[in-house]
Amino acid sequence: MNTHDIVSAAEAVQAAIIANEEHIESLDRAIGDGDHFINVRRGCEAIVALRSDLLPLAPSEAFKRIGMKLLSTIGGASGPLIGSFFISMGKALEGLPEPDARQFAHALAAGVDAIKTRGKADVGEKTMLDVLIPTSRLLLRLAGEGSDRGTLCAKLKAEAESNMLATRDMIATKGRAHFLGERALGHIDPGAKTSQVAVFAVCDLLTVGATS
């Protein structure tokens, strides 16, 4: 993985988020605070706009630059969460000019752990972590086993999809939805949906790259 790959992934995620705007916004209107999609879109636009500044940087510095930008760009509680995700990934990749799959997997795990720590949340609380934690753990295992890109991406997409859908049957204990109690049942968490969309976008990009 190099910084060009990071920028390409950001552009793919932005396109996928925009394509899923109606669905994500409807989920957020049902159980969220109403500004989830706005913040996510703003964050994606900010990252993509950094393209020319990011490309000369090593992956570690690129991720840290992204994180700092998002801290000042995304509003509400999301800015510190997502900003710390990228900054922690960058710190985990220091000294690695072109990280391999195992190194990236460990960096992703560090980023997810930063969200978990800062948000004081875990699996089962109807948040983005219900997708990010199990998907990150699976990536660690598959990368450690040396899985080929196609197999790895197919399994990651299945994991993200199933865990996103599982939030429908959870009672939220974190975020805006926890005020709704059982009224949030039957609704997919918007953060989990956004995370699933992002995982799919990156995996689809990697799969195309592997077959082109």
Task: Tell me about this structure.
The protein has a single domain (3-211), classed as DhaL domain (Serine Threonine Protein Phosphatase 5, Tetratricopeptide repeat, Alpha Horseshoe), CATH 1.25.40.340. It is mostly helical and 212 residues long. The longest helix is centred in the last third of the chain and has 22 residues, at 190-211. The two termini are 17 Å apart. It is globular and about 50 Å long. 71% of the residues lie in helices and 0% in strands.
Short note summarizing the structure:
It is built from ten helices and no strands.
Topology:
Blueprint: H1 3-19, H2 21-31, H3 36-49, H4 51-54, H5 59-71, H6 78-92, H7 101-119, H8 129-145, H9 149-166, H10 190-211
Helix pairs in contact: 1-3, 1-10, 2-10, 5-6, 6-7, 7-8, 8-9, 8-10, 9-10
Structural class: mainly alpha
Q: Largest sheet at a glance?
A: none
Query: CATH-wise, what's the superfamily?
Result: DhaL domain
Give the integer mean of the pLDDT values: 91
pLDDT < 50 stretches: none
Portion in helices: over 70%
Q: Rg from C-alpha positions?
A: 16 Å
Give the number of domains: 1
Compute the number of helices. Answer: 10
Number of strands: 0
The dominant shape is globular
**What is the straight-line distance between the termini?**
17 Å
Report the sheet-strand fraction.
under 5%
Give the topology string: H per helix, E per strand: HHHHHHHHHH
In CATH, the architecture is Alpha Horseshoe
Key terms:
single chain, 212 residues, mainly alpha, Serine Threonine Protein Phosphatase 5, Tetratricopeptide repeat
